[in-house]
Amino acid sequence: MRYVKIAVFFVLAVAAGMWLMRPATTDAGGQAQVTETKNSSIFNILLMGCDASGVRTDSIMLLHVDGADNRVDMLSLPRDSKIYYNGSYHKLNSISALYGAEAMAQTVEQLTGVPVDYYVRIYTGGFAQLVDALGGLEYEVEQDMVYSDPAQDLYINLKKGKQLLSGEQCEQYCRYRSYVMGDLTRTQRQRKLLTELLRQKLKLQYVIKLPALWHILNENTDTDLSAAEVISYLPLARSFCEQNVIFVQHDCPGEYNDMKKERISYYLIDRDALKEMCLKSFACE
To answer: Which residues are bridge partners to 223 per DSSP?
Structure first.
């Protein structure tokens, strides 16, 4: 198990807190200073949310963080995307379960044509604990959401309107999928909630939440980010906390297959269109 496990939902906020807690030095005039670590300000990170199985990825999102422009691009990849891997066809959400998180990152690189610098996998319940530790989320739910699936121990009951959502309610919102456009609408809603969460919580005042967050993150996430890499991004995190960040949403181009013909539901990614879009918005050069 890796030394540091940290979820990208809060990596910037947590890192900002760590930056503020570092010992300060003083200049010739007695003014406090903090030595900033030299680092890259542009990178891609793959965010994976696991379903109740703990291995299949219920949500798959690629984030492009651009510190130079104070911008975060978000791309959702449908979990039912048809993938040819290791000699057979799979749904994208099964790659992590069958072959591991690194295989999922490599698959996303091949699909998008851009590098995945890091991955973060968060397990069911972990996201809810993080939201609760940060005091919940003020959010306007677009519609009544009622759904029950005993097999997954999933019970959703949300009312339309602006309200303070608990962590469990945020998780319910992200897992709800009874839409006309199914998973496509669901991924749009997931990005919307994540964006609002970052807008509200990416602030220095949440430094006091750091100890609780570290415990939750270590227990509920898996990542290839090292401690040194997290530290190297502290100046970028502080910058994001002090400035307005632009969030840009991207849907994955493609369409669903003929389920009656293939007897299984697949999302068929338009790979040329996806790579063209990613080279414009997710390139790290």
So the answer is: 120
pLDDT at res. 80: 94
Return the pLDDT at 232.
75
What lies within 8 Å, CB to CB, of 136 at 6+ separation is 164, 165, 166, 167
> For residues 198 and 16, what is the distance between their CA atoms, to the nearest angstrom?
13
- At 124, the amino acid letter reads T
pLDDT digits over 90-139, tens only? 999 999 999 999 999 999 999 999 999 999 999 888 999 999 999 999 99
d(CA 5, CA 219): 8
Alpha-carbon distance values, 45 to 56, 72, 257, 258, 282 (Å)? 18, 11, 29, 32, 10
**pTM, 2 dp:** 0.82
Given a cut of 90, whether residue 235 has pLDDT beyond it is: no
- pLDDT given at position 9: 38
Residue 267 buriedness (CB in 10 A; 0-12 / 13-18 / 19+):
buried
Q: Which residues of 168-204 are buried (b: 16+ CB within 10 A; e: fewer)?
A: bbbbbbbbbbeeeeebbebbebbbbbbbbbbeebbee
CA-CA distance, 218 to 145, in Å (whole number)? 31
Residues 15 and 230 sit within 8 Å (Cβ to Cβ): yes
**Per-residue pLDDT at 229:** 79
pLDDT digits (tens, 9 = 90+) for 148-168: 988 777 899 999 999 999 999
Domains observed in the chain: 8-26+34-124+206-281 (3.30.420.590)
Cα(122)–Cα(175) distance, rounded to whole angstroms? 14
Report the alpha-carbon angle 61-284-85, nearest 5.
50
Nearest to 277 by CA among 73, 65, 8, 67: 73
